[in-house]
């Protein structure tokens, strides 16, 4: 065993951590006295002295005091030798100073030794230089390289010229240069080997946003190449092939005739087309004549030179060339998306499809798969890593039902201000929408702010979603019919991505949590015309004076992004006129991007100042007149009879300012057909704001929250019975299915003498797949029965194993025979026995629980749950029963089951919050109660519950708020009686309780057995209703089995409230619990003889009968029991009546009562035992044996009664022999 460290909290070299940490080196205490005492003082351990075996591990020493180097020795010759040490050792003066498992103030790191000034300056310089280099390298990615390796095509690359060269150019924010011209050959792959590089500043968010949102463009151009004259002569010989007319016209005509069935006169059409060409081409003919004349002049001047050159070209064709003017034309472009770099890749390779920029004629068209492709490799010198970052993608699809005011001649721009860290906001702008009236089809999304190009060359790889079912409709009407109409619309179909760092992501999430909406601005102005007359498409924020504009907004409801696991939403929102106040209150937009309030206010301030200046100039005369009148008033005031002069300057104060005008509300935009204008927007995050919780994580959280019991504990009482019923039911279903298959087998397959029918039928079942289904079903059912019926834990020898196998076989075969016999007797239709109604089972369970038979009550509650496991009320009833038995853990699990079946169950949420509060989980309890009040806003008892909860955790603000809400809904009409409120308990009644808010809540708590909450609620009513407070406290103490305290509270109620049947019945129940039977009988008689006794006195009759029987009055006891059997029959009442008849030796009456009890509960072993005893006394051996088998099957637990049955059975068998 390795030595353990003696420092408190350290687990070095313990078995629990050896598997992960391994062996940790330890050191013994030093022998020097001073250093020994230093070690003891350093270790935070009071009144402790180390022994000779005490050690301290390596974790508690500074690394500089531990040596792992070689130890140096000097040999006899004086030479230095080094030998490796097998163990670590401490340097002189070392002592333990680091204690990671203890508070930080107990650890004292010793000071470093002072170095020489020159050495310190050198280290500082090197460290600063290293940090500077590292910082510079992090800011700029020096090598951002785009490498184009090759161009490939399945067929010959389509050349635009007789001899063509290909050139590739890369553009990203600027022209990055192009590749050298490469001749096009008939090879499938053309090597290009072109690279372009640029730099990116990582700390500049604008550059990062541009990198993530905009692609690099590769432009593929063709240049007319130079060639050898001999090749030209070869081309001239094939001039007839080149001069053959194109067949595009014929092919179009043939297609037209094939579709319409009409014939077209091709000759006349060609003649007219040629005539048009001749008429239209006069200018071209003139140019050709001029060119020919110029060529003739040149040829006359230098005939000899031409002949010489021709001769030389024939002799040396490889050296001489003919100079021809080169022309170039863009063939196609492709876009490079840099998004893989933000996923952590330092390089990626991609094959891009070159999309032609011009549409081709039918004879020049190339299949999509045969389009040329280009291979591109993008690499950077270091990975782009941003901790806790996210990528926001905003897609604006289209604006529908636009008014006629929006025309193609207008300029449109959409802007969304995305919250970033602090108060900084980043604008996302999208411009250049397409004005169209056609129905939109599913296409690819476009890059932001790009013009429409042929063959969708400006599109991304992201597809538009054609599904309309996933659109969250925020418009008042159904938008689906509008999507297919041929009406004007603005089609954006653009995607804009933004990088959200950790602070930006938290700010964006906080914005959604607070405002739940994001304001989207839209600005429309007339397009400006450039000097050349072409219209500019890029939006210009500098608007001309008095230029008309339209300012709109859209409020995007992003609350769905707060749901766990949701990272994408698609919204349809109405378009409204812009309002500063609504954008601020609802969308959190502090200011408009297009029309900021600062500029607007400044302009308004200037106008107001000019008006005030004019008013001052024009009002000087009025001021003078007013001054004169004031002087005259002053003189007049000094006359006789006047009081002292008024020296108040109140009139000189400025006038009260006018109230600011109310802001103009926004208006929803409609088109001329009164259809609402709306926009479809999609917003997606790379990772959701609230992470998706997996099933395993939920199970772990539930285990921590519920503190579930070990799996070994039995959770179902009737497991064995259920397993047996399952086995029998499986056998029955298999037999029925075999009969159906046999009928089909006889019709399809003719009997044969060569093979038996049984073997052929088995093969038929195997072929149909039924045989395997039978085997798996019977295996599961038999395994369940064996596991619950037999135990193999105590088997110690082979003989016991063989006995177990034989017992299992006998059990399975006997149960199978029982099921088969029932089917045969009923002609394959098993007898349908009606089960007990669920409401009656609930009454039986409450009766059994009140009479102290917890096991029987538990069985009744579980039978209800087995009847319908998805009923939340059944789980809640079982939870209340478990709380009454003080099994809070099982109750908590049952409430969880109830909320799983019905998450909006108000009593389940209330009970869950109360149990969590008692467990000390305040935050979870508050969450449950707040969810309860969100669903039940007018429920008075819920607000009182929230008030009491805040009172428990001492939250005054919450107490005031919840109490105000409770008072607000106190005068509301009482809600309809629900599951809990309409059922009274057998012990007490709420009819005499006041209907105040705290009494109503206390009654609910008492029905839910929330005893502490009952006391908190009644504490608010002590002074106003002292008697009824004691009445409910008595019932509360009775359920808590505090019978003396319950009796005291009942006496207080009787003293202050007076004699009442309900108070008297509770008084009698308390006396019965204290075994004071005579007093209890007297109380029950007073209640039963009262004229105003309540209807529900079932428990009074039962306890009164029990008291009479205990006192020896069996006849009176039987009378009260029969009254219960008349008004509220139950298995217990009929069993008690049968027992009283049996005591009086009235066997036939007893048998009748036991039979009635058995009809209501045929699974009670006690009832079967009494029936068996009655049949034995009546000398019915067969009936007694059947009843005895049922006694054994239902596990009768009364050993004395079972022994009596065995003796009686033995006596009857001996007599019959």
UniProtKB/TrEMBL annotation:
Residues 304-315 have a biased composition (Low complexity). GO terms for cellular component: extracellular exosome; motile cilium. Pfam families: THAP (PF05485). Keywords: DNA-binding, Metal-binding, Repeat, TPR repeat, Zinc, Zinc-finger. Residues 278-296, 600-625, 640-649 have a biased composition (Basic and acidic residues). SUPFAM superfamilies: Glucocorticoid receptor-like (DNA-binding domain) (SSF57716), TPR-like (SSF48452). This is THAP-type domain-containing protein. It comes from Callosobruchus maculatus.
């Amino acid at each position: 065993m390795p030595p353990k460290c003696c420092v408190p909290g350290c687990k070095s070299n313990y078995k629990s951590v050896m598997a992960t940490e391994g062996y940790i080196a330890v050191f013994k205490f030093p022998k020097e006295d001073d250093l020994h005492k230093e070690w003891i003082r350093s270790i935070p351990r009071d009144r402790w002295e180390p022994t000779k075996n005490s050690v301290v591990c390596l974790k508690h020493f500074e690394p500089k005091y531990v040596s792992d180097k070689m130890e140096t020795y000097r040999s006899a010759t004086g030479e230095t030798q080094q030998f490796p040490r097998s163990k670590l050792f401490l340097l002189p003066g070392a002592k333990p100073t680091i204690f990671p498992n203890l508070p930080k103030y107990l650890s004292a790191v010793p000071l470093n030794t002072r170095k020489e000034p020159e050495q310190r300056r050198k280290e500082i310089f090197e460290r600063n230089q290293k940090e500077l280099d590292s910082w510079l390298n992090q800011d700029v990615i020096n090598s951002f390289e785009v490498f184009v390796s090759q161009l490939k095509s399945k067929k010959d690359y389509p050349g635009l010229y007789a001899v063509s060269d290909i050139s590739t150019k890369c553009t990203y924010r600027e022209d990055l240069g192009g590749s050298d011209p490469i001749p096009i050959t008939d090879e499938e792959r053309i090597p290009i080997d072109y690279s372009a590089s640029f730099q990116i500043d990582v700390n500049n968010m604008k550059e990062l946003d541009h990198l993530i949102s905009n692609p690099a463009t590769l432009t593929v151009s063709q240049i007319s190449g130079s060639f050898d004259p001999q090749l030209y002569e070869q081309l001239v010989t094939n001039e007839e092939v080149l001069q053959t007319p194109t067949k595009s016209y014929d092919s179009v005509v043939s297609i037209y005739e094939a579709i319409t069935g009409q014939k077209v006169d091709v000759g006349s059409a060609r003649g007219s087309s040629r005539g048009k060409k001749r008429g239209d081409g006069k200018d071209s003919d003139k140019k050709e004549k001029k060119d020919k004349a110029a060529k003739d002049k040149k040829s006359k001047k230098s005939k000899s030179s031409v002949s010489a050159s021709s001769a030389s070209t024939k002799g040396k064709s490889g050296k001489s060339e003919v100079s021809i003017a080169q022309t170039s034309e863009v063939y196609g472009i492709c876009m490079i998306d840099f998004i893989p770099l933000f996923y952590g890749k330092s390089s990626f390779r991609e094959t891009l499809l070159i999309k032609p920029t011009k549409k081709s004629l039918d004879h020049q068209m190339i299949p999509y798969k045969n389009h040329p492709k280009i291979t591109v490799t993008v690499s950077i010198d270091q990975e782009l890593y941003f901790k806790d970052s996210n990528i926001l993608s905003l897609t604006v699809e289209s604006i529908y039902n636009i008014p006629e005011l929006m025309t193609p001649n207008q300029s449109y721009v959409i802007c969304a201000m995305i919250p970033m860290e602090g108060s900084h906001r980043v604008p996302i702008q999208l411009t250049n929408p397409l004005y169209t009236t056609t129905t939109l089809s599913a296409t690819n999304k476009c890059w932001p702010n790009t013009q429409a190009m042929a063959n969708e060359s400006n599109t991304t790889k992201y597809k538009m979603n054609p599904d309309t079912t996933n659109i969250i409709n925020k418009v008042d009407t159904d938008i689906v019919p509008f999507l297919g109409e041929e009406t004007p619309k603005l089609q954006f179909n653009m995607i804009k991505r933004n990088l959200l760092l950790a602070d930006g992501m938290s700010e964006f999430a906080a914005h959604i949590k607070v405002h739940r909406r994001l304001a989207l601005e839209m600005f429309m102005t007339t397009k400006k015309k450039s000097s050349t007359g072409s219209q500019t498409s890029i939006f210009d924020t500098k608007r001309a004076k008095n230029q008309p504009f339209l300012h709109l907004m859209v409020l995007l409801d992003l609350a769905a992004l707060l749901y766990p696991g949701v990272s994408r939403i698609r919204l349809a929102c109405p378009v409204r006129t812009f309002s500063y106040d609504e954008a601020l209150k609802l969308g959190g937009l502090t200011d408009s991007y297009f029309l900021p309030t600062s500029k607007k206010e400044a302009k308004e301030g200037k106008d107001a100042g000019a008006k005030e200046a004019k008013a001052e100039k024009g009002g000087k005369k009025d001021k003078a007149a007013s001054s004169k009148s004031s002087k005259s008033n002053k003189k007049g005031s000094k006359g006789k009879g006047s009081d002292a002069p008024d020296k108040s300057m109140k009139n000189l104060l400025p006038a009260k300012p006018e109230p600011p005008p109310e802001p103009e509300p926004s208006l929803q935009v409609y088109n001329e057909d009164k259809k609402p204008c709306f926009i479809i927007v999609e917003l997606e995050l790379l990772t959701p704001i609230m992470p998706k919780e997996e099933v395993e994580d939920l199970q772990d959280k539930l285990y921590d929250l519920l503190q579930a019991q070990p799996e070994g504990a039995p959770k179902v009482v009737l497991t064995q019975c259920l397993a047996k019923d399952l086995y029998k039911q499986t056998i029955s279903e298999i037999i029925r299915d075999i009969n159906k298959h046999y009928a089909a087998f006889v019709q399809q397959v003719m009997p044969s003498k060569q093979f038996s029918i049984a073997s052929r039928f088995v093969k038929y079942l195997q072929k149909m797949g039924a045989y395997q289904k039978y085997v798996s079903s019977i295996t599961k059912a038999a395994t369940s029965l064996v596991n619950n019926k037999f135990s193999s834990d105590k088997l110690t020898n082979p003989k016991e194993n063989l006995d177990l196998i034989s017992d299992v076989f006998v059990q399975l075969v006997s149960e199978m025979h029982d099921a088969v016999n029932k089917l045969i007797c009923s002609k394959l239709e098993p007898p349908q026995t009606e089960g007990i109604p669920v409401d009656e089972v609930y009454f039986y369970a409450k009766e059994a629980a009140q009479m102290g038979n917890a096991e029987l009550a538990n069985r009744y509650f579980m039978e209800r749950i087995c009847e319908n496991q998805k009923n939340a009320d059944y789980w809640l009833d079982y939870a209340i029963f478990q709380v009454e038995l003080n099994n809070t853990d099982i109750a908590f699990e049952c409430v969880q089951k109830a909320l799983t079946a019905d998450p909006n169950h108000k009593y389940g949420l209330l009970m869950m919050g109360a149990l969590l509060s008692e467990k000390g989980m305040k935050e979870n309890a508050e969450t449950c109660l707040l969810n309860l009040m969100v669903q039940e806003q007018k429920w008075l008892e819920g607000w009182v519950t929230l008030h009491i909860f805040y009172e428990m955790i001492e939250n005054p603000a919450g107490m005031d708020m919840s109490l105000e809400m409770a008072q607000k809904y106190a005068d509301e009409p009482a809600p309809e009686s629900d599951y809990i409120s309409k059922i009274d308990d057998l012990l007490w009644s709420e009819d005499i309780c006041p209907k105040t808010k705290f009494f109503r809540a206390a009654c609910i708590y008492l029905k839910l057995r929330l005893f502490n909450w009952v006391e908190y609620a009644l504490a608010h009513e002590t002074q106003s209703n002292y008697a009824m407070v004691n009445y409910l406290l008595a019932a509360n103490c009775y359920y808590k089995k505090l019978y003396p305290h319950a009796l005291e509270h009942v006496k207080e109620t009787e003293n202050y409230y007076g004699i009442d049947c309900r108070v008297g019945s509770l008084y009698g129940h308390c006396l019965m619990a204290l075994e004071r039977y005579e007093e209890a009988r007297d109380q029950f008689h007073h209640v039963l003889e009262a004229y105003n006794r309540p209807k529900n006195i079932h428990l009074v009759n039962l306890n009164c009968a029990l008291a009479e029987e205990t006192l020896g009055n069996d006849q009176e006891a039987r009378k009260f029991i029969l009254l219960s059997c008349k008004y509220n029959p139950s298995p217990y009442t009929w069993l008690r009546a049968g027992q009283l008849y049996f005591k009086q030796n009235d066997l036939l009456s007893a048998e009748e009562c036991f039979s009635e009890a058995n009809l209501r509960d045929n699974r009670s072993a006690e009832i079967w035992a009494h029936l068996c005893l009655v049949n034995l006394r009546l000398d019915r051996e067969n009936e007694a044996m059947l009843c005895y088998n049922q006694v054994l099957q239902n596990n009768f637990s009364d050993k004395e009664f079972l022994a009596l049955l065995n003796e009686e059975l033995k006596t009857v068998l001996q007599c019959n022999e």
